[in-house]
Design a protein that fits this description.
Strand order of the largest sheet: 5-4-3-6-13
Number of strands: 26
Bound molecules: uridine-diphosphate-N-acetylgalactosamine, manganese (II) ion
Structural class: alpha+beta
Oligomer: single chain
Distance between the termini: 63 Å
């Protein structure tokens, strides 16, 4: 048994928690997804390669004492010790002292022994570092909020607890936030390899999202490419953030924007919820290309914590019902599967209050103005056809459907249930056939395997095996490269005879 201090800033509370048995500790230690023994052999103070371009070195941020300062918040649950320590040291070593007010660690109910008294003793030797212990594990949203509420600086910078910041990482962020509380900024996230602890080529820059409600890397959007003068160093608008690394004005976030949606628990989708909230309620979210932070993407053995039951689905549902509106929610909901539709996602009145108070814009505005390069606006906004693909034969009531793995023929559904039964399709202007239920992929026909499947679409133009042509004259839906027809009666590609004739039943 051991005693821990709960909250360094308020009343002293003692929580008594059992130390997990040795076998469990070992399991936890091998589950953090990192090569722990290698990490432990690497110095806590080490130099890391600076990936920011040479032009970034020339940017003058002026008198640093005139920029807002920041409280860095690290939340963690069972983080590997040396990885956490190295994260803290990197911030202490590479942040200008004027800009770094403090580092607040929030322990989100860790059970790993090395994060107990040993951590208390270690941070007592470091300047500017404080520790808050959550009473019990709640997940990263409540943990971050606890850290943010305790923060003393004008801005809060949230970081994952397995990062290493690069030289001059903080200056671009603070410089952009100066004088405008509605600007939320993110660094470029560079990959640090979990096995070797060396830098990796990949990372995360600008993000959009997939309709399955996960963030997704995107190139600079067309509307922005035209505006940006210096791609090396100018801020780049990002529709969504990855979630783990950002700076935000403390007072604006907590007291105007309403903070995080606290109905989102443990792990996942808080980044989309927060991004929508920022953009739709009067803020901006920008990536600063000269600010770069390494993040160790977990590979081996996964996460050091358990994510309970259906919390992942609840988090997505809260984001969907909270922000997407009926027109767009149906695309996201249809991807979660039927069980999600009957899942209780709790009360959204806090979100509604913020939307009312700030007169937040709707999701249609977000899609057209913030994320116009997304698939629904860019590829399908001017689709040739959108609806059910019905057999033209009036004696048949069969429609084309697409199951997870292949095409099928099914009795036609009503238009409002078509999306859930996988009968709602788009034929884009470029000739891609997409299932509304899985918008981010394209229907593909392999002529050698004689098989229909859903595969990644071409990046700039359709892939040959994914090109389709519909002609209202002969009513055939043809696979362009083979000239064969997709039939709602067989659910497959074959001869273009009268049984393959198709009629689109439009969905507005
Ligand atoms: C990404 C984000 C992460 C978060 C998540 C969605 C990056 C690089 N990472 O996943 O910050 O937005 O997507 O939710 O953008 N943690 C807790 N309590 C929990 C779970 C996690 O304190 O119940 C901590 C954890 O120790 C870590 C942080 O929260 O410091 C993020 O967790 P992660 O690193 O496992 O998530 P990641 O990077 O896979
Ligand atoms: Mn992480």
């Amino acid at each position: 048994m051991r005693a821990m201090q709960l909250d360094a800033s308020s009343d002293f509370v003692v929580v008594v928690r059992p130390v997990p048995p040795l076998a469990e500790q070992r399991k936890l230690n091998s589950q953090h997804g990192f090569n722990a023994s290698l990490s432990q052999s690497i110095p806590l103070n080490r130099d890391v390669r600076n990936k920011a371009g040479a032009e970034c070195a020339l940017v003058d941020y002026g008198d640093l004492s005139k920029l807002p300062d920041t409280s860095v918040v690290f939340v963690f649950c069972n983080e590997e010790q040396s990885v956490l320590y190295r994260s803290i040291h990197s911030v202490l070593n590479r942040s200008p002292p004027q800009l770094l007010r403090e580092i607040i660690l929030v322990d989100d109910g860790s059970s790993a022994a090395h994060l107990g008294d040993e951590l208390d003793k270690y941070i007592a030797t470091l300047p500017k570092v404080k520790l808050i212990r959550q009473n019990a594990r709640t997940g990263l949203v409540e943990a971050r909020l606890a850290g943010m509420r305790a923060a003393q600086a004008e801005t809060v910078t949230v970081l994952d607890s397995h990062i290493e910041v690069q030289e001059r990482w903080l200056e671009p962020l603070m410089s952009r936030m100066k004088g405008d509380e509605t600007r939320v900024v993110i660094p470029i996230i560079d990959g640090m390899n979990a096995k070797t602890f060396k830098d990796d080529p990949g990372g995360i820059q600008l993000c959009g999202f997939l309709w399955s409600m996960v963030e997704h890397g995107i190139p600079l959007q067309h509307k922005d490419a035209a505006m940006i003068q210096s791609p090396c160093c100018d801020p780049q608008p990002s529709p969504v953030m990855a979630g783990g690394l950002f700076s935000i004005n403390k007072n604006w976030f907590l007291n105007t924007l309403g903070g995080y949606d606290t109905g989102i628990s443990f792990w996942g989708t808080e980044n989309l919820e927060m991004s929508f909230r920022i953009w739709m309620c009067g803020g901006t979210l920008e990536m600063m290309p000269c600010s770069r932070v390494y993040h160790v993407f977990r590979t081996m053995g996964g996460k050091p914590y358990h994510v309970p039951g259906n919390t992942g689905v609840v988090n997505k549902l809260r984001t969907i019902y909270g922000w997407l509106g009926e027109k767009y929610a149906k695309y996201a909901l249809s991807q979660l599967g039927p069980a999600a539709l009957s899942t209780d996602y709790g009360d959204l009145s806090d979100v509604r209050r913020v939307q009312e108070k700030l007169q937040c814009k709707n999701f249609d505005w977000f899609m057209h103005n913030v994320y116009p390069d997304n698939v629904l606006i860019k590829s399908l906004g001017d689709a040739q056809y959108h609806g059910l693909i019905k057999a033209a034969d009036p004696t048949s009531s069969k429609c084309l459907a697409f199951t997870r793995t292949s095409g099928a023929s099914q009795p036609c559904k009503t238009k409002d249930t078509a999306i859930y039964s996988k009968q709602e399709f788009f034929l884009s202007k470029m000739g891609e056939l997409r299932l509304a239920n899985q918008l981010d992929d394209c229907i593909d026909f392999s002529s050698t395997q004689r098989r229909l499947s859903l595969n990644a679409c071409g990046r700039y133009r359709p892939i040959a095996s994914q090109e389709w042509i519909y002609s209202a004259g002969d009513q055939f839906l043809k696979h362009k490269s083979t000239g064969e027809c997709l039939s709602p009666i067989t659910g497959t590609v074959g001869k273009c005879d009268s049984s393959a004739k198709v009629e689109w039943d439009p969905i507005p």
